[in-house]
Design brief:
The protein has six helices and ten strands, in the order ααβββααββββββαβα. The chain is of the alpha+beta class.
């Protein structure tokens, strides 16, 4: 939203120069906050948590089944935003490079996240992870910060390492896997070419 204001997109053409200037300052500070929140493990930048502490910027919990972690779905959206910056500073370039590298390291292959619809089930649906050598890459929603292992969680806040260990309600009503990082990976070479002239 702030970016659209700064770019004076038609919906915001009525805003004063002062308001646009304030939006530009807020946008810059927002990008700085994003960069400061990126999770570093053993000295290496990875991606972001679903939520960060307002004071320390450290990864933190939200709902009981959303524990501190490295999160793929939210991180993909962040990287897309950073890649849209017209003249990224070196910190932004490092952040994008590092996140894409982490996405590559963390992808899950040979598995398919399948939705099963059955009125006989308690919640009408179930979601399971099945072997499928032809399936496109998947990413778990949450990765353990220390081990980089995918994990899952029920409403009791206890970390679980297999989807089938999660209760039927959370399996049915929460997205435990995503393909969102693939869009970042696909766009990455073109972004590198634009900002660094690679591949030209």
């Amino acid at each position: 939203l702030l970016g659209d204001v700064v770019e004076r997109k038609p919906d915001f053409a009525f805003l004063s120069a002062e308001t646009v200037s304030r939006a530009a300052d807020a946008f810059r500070r927002g990008i700085d906050c994003i960069l400061r929140c990126q999770i570093r493990v053993n000295g290496q930048l990875t991606a972001w948590c679903q939520q960060h502490d307002a004071e320390t910027l450290a990864p933190t919990s939200a709902r009981t089944y959303e524990l501190p972690s490295i999160c793929t779905y939210e991180s993909a959206s962040i990287v897309h935003l950073l890649m849209e910056l017209p003249e990224p500073e070196p910190r932004v370039i490092e952040a994008v490079d590092s996140a894409v590298a982490w996405f590559e390291r963390s992808k899950i292959t040979g598995k398919r996240y399948e939705k099963i619809v059955d009125p006989a089930l308690e919640y009408g649906v179930d979601r399971v992870l099945k072997d499928d050598p032809a399936a496109p890459p998947l990413w778990a929603r949450f990765y353990d910060i220390e081990t980089n292992q995918p994990f899952f969680c029920d409403r009791d806040g206890v970390k679980r390492w297999k989807l089938e260990e999660v209760g039927a309600e959370r399996r049915a009503r929460y997205a435990w896997f995503t393909t969102s990082p693939q869009r970042v990976i696909d766009a990455y070479p073109k972004w590198r070419a634009r900002i660094l002239g690679e591949g030209k």
